[in-house]
Amino acid sequence: MGPTLDKEKILEENRRVHSLENHLYSARHPEQTNFFQNSLVEKTLDQVCAQLNPEAKVLDLGCGTGYLFLRFLKRGFNVTGLDISNEMIEVINNSISENEEHRAHLIVGDVEKYMDKNQDNFDLIIFSAVLHHLFDYEMVLRKTCKSIKPGTKVLIFFEPLKQEINSTMRYAFHRTLSWLDEKSYRLEMGIRKIPLFENEYHHSDYQRQFGGINPKNVEKILREESFSILKLEKYCARRFGISAWLANRVLQTQNTFNIFAIKT
Ligand SMILES: C[S@@+](CC[C@H](N)C(=O)[O-])C[C@H]1O[C@@H](n2cnc3c(N)ncnc32)[C@H](O)[C@@H]1O
After folding, report:
1. How far apart are CA 123 and CA 55, in angstroms?
2. 241: which of 19, 36, 174, 246 fits an S-S bond (Cβ 3.0–4.6 Å)?
């Protein structure tokens, strides 16, 4: 199978699975909303917003149901969200209050195609949990970095990283905690009758088959495109806040990363 076919299959599956996820998305992804992750998101946004002026224009690529989009909107910014799934965009649309509408812009489309044509001057570009869904994330990231003006910031958030756990003991505890976390999640989803769509996912999380994304590689691309790294954060995301707390505070393992950078 050629690369064009692969890319089209991945786009098509992303469109299809996310149309199923739509209003169920946040219930199915407690790892994004538990108390530990919530406090991490708010802390990150405080740091990012401190670097933006109040009129800043924010672009959220692969905005989903508005995880970061809605937070930036609440903080008073002018926000554009783009997603390949019409159904995910509809969920955001229904979450925007009347007095925020004039600052919210929603587009259905593919990240790569949009960045090819984008002529708008954004002050912050966000990729939250979307790079790992792309066939060639390096190319899309490079293209984005090239197309933007100096002073623009980029926030890469909540991407799965390639794990390195050298101690056998820590690895065993890590696997046990991960197993418990996942078992409890499945039990909760079963009780709440929230479907997991397991037979629907084959290659939409494309980069996961390579173990995730290497933050060193992302850093290299950013530096080569004249970015300076303002913050790199690695941590362990878990379905439940208590598991995330144990993984980060006790085991100190990492499976996720964020990078905040500015084009010089
Ligand atoms: C894991 S969700 C993350 C959503 C949101 N950014 C968040 O952090 O909760 C990934 C999103 O990326 C979108 N997506 C996947 N591939 C895309 C592409 N090529 N162009 C635009 N959006 C895409 C999906 O439809 C989905 O809404």
Report:
1. 9
2. 36
Q: Which pLDDT tens digit goes with each residue over 169-183? A: 888 999 999 999 999
- Which residue's CA is the nearest one to ligand 1's atom 14? 62
Q: What is the pLDDT of residues 143-172, one digit of tens each?
A: 999 999 999 999 999 999 987 777 888 889
Highest mean pLDDT pick, 8-12, 18-22, 39-43: 39-43
Measured CA to CA in angstroms, residue 159 lies from 120, 130, 184, 207, 233 at distances of 25, 7, 23, 10, 11
C-beta separation of 22 from 227 below 8 A: no
User: For the chain, which domains are there?
Assistant: 3-263 (3.40.50.150)
Exposed, middle or buried, 256 (CB in 10 Å: 0-12/13-18/19+)? buried
Contacts of 44 (CB under 8 A, 6+ apart): 155, 157, 233, 258, 260
Which of 14, 90, 144 to mutate to test ligand 1, by most ligand atoms within 8 A of the CB atom? 14
Q: What is the C-alpha separation between 12 and 14, in angstroms, rounded?
A: 5
